[in-house]
Amino acid sequence: METKIQSVAIDGPAGVGKSTAAKLLAQKLGWAILETGAIYRAITVNFITKNLPLENEDVLAKAVQNLPVQVVYKNQKQHLFVEGVDLTPYLRTPIVDQNVALVAKVPAVREAVRAVQRQIATSQNIVVEGRDIGTVVLPESQNKFFLTASPQVRAQRRFKELVAKGGEVPNFSALLADIQKRDEMDKTRAVSPLLPAQDAIIINTDHLEIESVVHKMALKILRKDQDLNK
Ligand code: DC
Q: H-type helices in 4-72, by residue range?
């Protein structure tokens, strides 16, 4: 009998804990994981190194045509190669944080990234984390979740994360403003704006530890509990 490939789609705004939740859930299920923001980030690094004008959608649309983008797993960690170069170390740098939304709003870029994502997600059981996975990338997924949390809670979590890393004490107001700006850009984007799919289960994580979020999702997927509010 043919076994069906399964997926979990986890969407939500910046800083809501999707990435940690997706990793823990993938571990629990023994499935692969795909963090889709990294693909947009890698393309942004490639464009920056080529000095492309990131405000010019036509230039970016042309540049993404036939651009070789590969997701490679090394020791279970996701690496992003563009034109054969491993750009993984540069994905989370401030210049990428500041510019990735400009790249992610270009329809031709989204189409190219969608193709990469579908190719990976339709070949293995996988947890896919992003902004438009349930709505655009894997609309056929049987397991869609949309995580939410207030901007204040997300800024507080980011603040704690940065403090734990050491170094300069971050500015809370700046972190909050950054999260609000990114939300606005993600929500008002003409193509694939950040929205829950109609059949997505919405989980507000304001008062939930990440383990509880993962537990809720796993129960739902394993069909042991149909009512998440119990
Ligand atoms: O999740 P992240 O911070 O790594 O995402 C980086 C950027 O990519 C962010 O601006 C949102 C965008 N993105 C997107 O538009 N669609 C996705 N599926 C994933 C990320």
A: 18-29, 37-49, 57-64
> β-strand 32-35 against 143-148: which pairing, if any?
unpaired
Say how many CA atoms lie within 13 Å of 8 toward its Cβ.
Answer: 32
Q: Is the pTM of this model over 0.85?
A: yes
From 91, 100, 116, give the residue whose CB has the most ligand 1 atoms within 8 Å, as the site to mutate.
100
What tens digit of pLDDT does each residue of 24-62 get? 999 999 999 999 999 999 999 999 999 999 999 999 999
Given the candidates 3.40.50.1100, 3.40.50.300, 3.30.1490.20, 3.90.1720.10, the CATH classification of the domain at 7-220 is: 3.40.50.300
Q: Is 41 in the pocket of ligand 1 (CB under 6 A)?
A: yes
**Residue identifier of the C-alpha nearest atom 10 of ligand 1:** 101
Closest C-alpha to ligand 1, atom 4: 37
Structural domain boundaries in the chain = 7-220
Q: Atom of ligand 1 at shortest distance to CA of 101?
A: 10
Strand order in the sheet with 7-11: 32-35, 126-130, 7-11, 143-148, 201-204
